[in-house]
Design a protein that fits this description.
About 35% of the residues lie in helices and about 20% in strands. The chain is α/β, with parallel strands linked by helices. The chain has one domain: Peptidase S8/S53 domain (Rossmann fold, 3-Layer(aba) Sandwich), CATH 3.40.50.200. The strands form 4 sheets. It has a 5-stranded parallel β-sheet, with helices on both faces. Helix 2 links the parallel strand 2 and strand 3. The longest helix is centred in the last third of the chain and has 18 residues.
Length: about 300
């Protein structure tokens, strides 16, 4: 695409970036597939790239998209954060464990100002859940919050993160423009259910389970191309893998406003920043988040 005017993160984040709230001073890490490391979205913010174990040499799609949503200079939540990237093969669960172990060992060698604060892993593990949980807790003890594409997230409180979409990519900064996407049409038809009914059922279940309901826009937006270093593609099929770096980025945004925030405070601020749009979806308002982070002590 030649016109990049519609490449942006949405949710009013561009305005915050222009005011200086863009993740400066925060180190984030991603464990994912291969990365198109030369892409202009994050080439300047990438400070560490490491391949852990076997990788799928032909596939840069997943990791590149996640990185652009988290730290991309045009479409990222925190374009000024420093990015540490660990590439591995999600097809084997053990690879994720090894990569997280390697990340934690690497983090211990870093100077204080270079320490990783947030980790994005846009997957979950089925067979290795206990080992995964143990490593996530070890990361917490190092001052790191790990955000995963599990339902709910492996945090306390746990977020019931669900994918939503921008219904109009030309109006991405209005929270009321975020909806449950067309991918739910067949499910709703089969169950004779409206979107409003689905939202209410999910909310009831989340309350019963002690989860924090949360929708974040995963599709209907431009992301970095995984084949062209200066290219962008319109993604209309994104799932939780794209919502997770959005949440990770919002946590990093809060921490950049107030670096003294503890893990518990960051998660609390994310929860307190949730508003309900006119579709009944609970969404984090970045403007509220920045305001709350700035006033926290």
């Amino acid at each position: 695409m030649k016109d990049i005017s519609t490449v942006e993160p949405g949710l009013g984040l561009r305005v915050l970036h222009e005011k200086g709230y863009a993740g400066k001073g925060i180190n984030v890490a991603i464990i994912d597939g291969l990365l198109l490391e030369t892409h202009e979205e994050f080439a300047d913010s990438l400070v560490h790239l490491e391949i852990v174990g076997s990788v799928m040499e032909e596939d840069h799609y997943h990791g590149t998209t996640v990185a652009s949503i988290l730290t991309g200079k045009l479409c990222g939540v925190v374009p000024q954060a420093r990015l540490h990237f660990f590439a591995t093969n999600f097809a084997e669960e053990s690879n994720v464990l090894v990569a997280l172990e390697r990340l934690l060992a690497y983090n211990e060698t870093l100077e204080a100002e270079e320490k990783i604060r947030f980790v994005n892993i846009s997957t979950g593990l089925r067979q290795e859940q206990d080992a995964f949980q143990s490593l996530v807790e070890k990361a917490w003890d190092q001052g790191i919050i790990v955000f995963t594409s599990t339902m709910p997230t492996m945090t306390d409180p746990p977020f019931a993160l669900r994918e939503a979409a921008y219904v109009d990519k030309a109006n991405m900064n209005q929270l009321d423009n975020i909806v449950i996407g067309d991918w739910m049409n067949e499910f709703l038809k089969q169950n004779n259910m409206t979107r409003e009914e689905l939202v209410r059922i999910r909310e009831t279940n989340d309350l019963e389970n002690g989860y924090v309901s949360l929708y974040l826009p995963c599709s209907g937006r431009y992301v970095a191309s995984h084949v062209e270093s200066n290219g962008y593609v319109l993604d209309n099929e994104g799932g939780l893998s794209w919502g997770t770096p959005f949440l990770t980025g919002l946590a990093a945004l809060a921490s950049s406003v107030n670096p003294s925030l503890t893990n518990e405070q960051v998660l609390s601020l994310l929860q307190r920043s949730i508003i309900r749009n006119d579709k009944g979806l609970d969404i984090i308002d970045p403007q509220i988040l920045v305001s709350l982070a700035g006033s926290s002590s």
